[in-house]
């Protein structure tokens, strides 16, 4: 498989996945093309050795796995890779219509730790899931994507705010409502959604509710004199979802292999479809109903939590510990924190170093400055919830939580190699 082909597939995936709902739908398509079978959590399962399956919860979280052929799960356990499908963004409020001075705007709510400044003066579109009644009165859902630019959040001219470059606080309530157009009276947003759903092929009696977010329409791209950088929205953390899926689909069917991509990480993961919810625990209980067998299998398992890391920024190098500033395109980053904000232990990090060495891939480390707060991932949550040994790693990137982020193209290729090796590991 060519490296350029892999990067092209990544760019296409990012472009087609403006929301977690779309990301899961696209992952589902690839899994089905590879012969994976979707299972309903409501149904009884008849799993076969060598079988390939996946489940989806709330359209925004997905777990895919392979059942081992030659060994049982009790002794071999699972090789797990975890990531999250959500990214910081601006979500549309339930009663969003604003009509001021002849302009039609939508009220938005900030989802997660958004870096707000880059959202101004971008060509924005709108996507997500809509719940509606069809003509027979049945409750249905549809994924929609306006695709074309339909909105913008214009900056205030510097002539009217001479202190703008000296540091201005952004008021999320008053500064952020995007402008969608001009109107003589306040439009009905749900009527616009009805038109969009019907334009995409469904018949709608009435739109009920929705989960919609704005996104930047500029497509992902390879940037730099030698295409060494990847720039895109939602690299945190659709990049890790993609790398985990690539590794799963390319790995040999030897051991139990599992990929979990959950929603709501950016707001704490505490939901039915988040890492702090029961999704993974429920799955493992169904695969191994006997408590002792389940405990033995988890003791033989390992998870790699993949979530991007902070690369050292040449203009802001003082924000890093000098000995732990990862460089873009110098290899995946092992993330460590003494206060358990990351789940890495010396054992799990050593295992990862061995796997990377087998693939001739360099490895870096990230430790936050001792005088700064540290973010976290699904790693500590999953490790605590199911008791599996866990490692936190990530591709180094710039502009985390911006509307457009930046990572290294070679880091993507190298990290997929190590994750693929992990899935093939005889022992973890």
UniProtKB/TrEMBL annotation:
SUPFAM superfamilies reported for this sequence: Aminopeptidase/glucanase lid domain (SSF101821), Zn-dependent exopeptidases (SSF53187)
Organism of provenance: Neptunomonas concharum
Enzyme class, broadest EC rank: hydrolase
Protein name: M18 family aminopeptidase
GO terms, molecular function: aminopeptidase activity; metallopeptidase activity; zinc ion binding
GO biological process, one term: proteolysis
One Pfam family, short name: Peptidase_M18
A single Gene Ontology CC term: cytoplasm
Family of this protein: Belongs to the peptidase M18 family.
């Amino acid at each position: 498989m060519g490296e350029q082909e892999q990067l092209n597939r990544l760019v296409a995936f990012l472009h087609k996945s403006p929301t977690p709902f779309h990301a899961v739908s696209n992952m589902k398509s690839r899994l089905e093309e590879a012969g994976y079978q979707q299972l309903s959590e409501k149904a009884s399962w008849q799993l076969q050795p060598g079988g390939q399956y996946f489940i989806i919860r709330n359209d925004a979280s997905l777990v895919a796995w392979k059942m081992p052929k030659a060994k049982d799960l009790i002794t071999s356990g699972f090789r797990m890779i975890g990531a999250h499908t959500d990214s910081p963004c601006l979500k549309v409020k339930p009663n969003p219509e604003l009509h001021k001075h002849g302009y039609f705007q939508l009220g938005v709510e900030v989802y997660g730790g958004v870096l707000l400044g880059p959202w101004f003066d971008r060509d924005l579109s709108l996507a997500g899931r809509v719940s509606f009644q069809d003509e027979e009165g049945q409750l249905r859902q549809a994924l929609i994507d306006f695709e074309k630019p339909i909105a913008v959040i214009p900056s205030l001219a510097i002539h009217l705010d001479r202190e703008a470059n000296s540091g201005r606080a952004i008021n999320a309530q008053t500064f952020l409502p995007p402008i969608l157009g001009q109107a003589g009276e306040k439009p009905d947003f749900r009527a616009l959604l009805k038109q969009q759903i019907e334009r995409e092929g469904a018949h709608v009696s009435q739109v009920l509710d929705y989960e919609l977010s704005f996104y930047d329409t500029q497509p992902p791209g390879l940037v730099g004199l030698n295409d060494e950088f990847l720039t895109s929205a939602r690299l945190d953390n659709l990049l890790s979802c993609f790398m985990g899926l690539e590794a799963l689909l390319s790995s040999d069917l030897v051991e139990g292999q599992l990929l979990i991509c959950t929603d709501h990480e950016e707001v704490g993961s505490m939901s039915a479809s988040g890492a702090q919810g029961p999704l993974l625990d429920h799955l493992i209980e169904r695969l191994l109903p006997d408590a002792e067998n389940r405990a033995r299998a988890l003791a033989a398992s390992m998870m790699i939590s993949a979530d991007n890391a902070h690369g050292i920024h040449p203009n802001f190098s003082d924000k890093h510990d000098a000995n732990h500033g990862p460089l873009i395109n110098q290899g995946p980053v092992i993330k460590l924190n003494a206060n358990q904000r990351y789940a890495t232990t010396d054992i799990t990090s050593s295992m990862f170093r061995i796997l990377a060495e087998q693939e001739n891939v360099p490895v870096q480390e990230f430790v936050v400055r001792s005088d700064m707060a540290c973010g976290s991932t699904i790693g500590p949550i999953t490790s605590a919830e199911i008791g599996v040994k866990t490692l936190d790693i990530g591709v180094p990137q710039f502009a985390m939580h911006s509307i457009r982020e930046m990572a290294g193209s070679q880091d993507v290729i190298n990290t997929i190699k190590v994750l693929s090796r992990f899935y093939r590991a005889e022992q973890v």
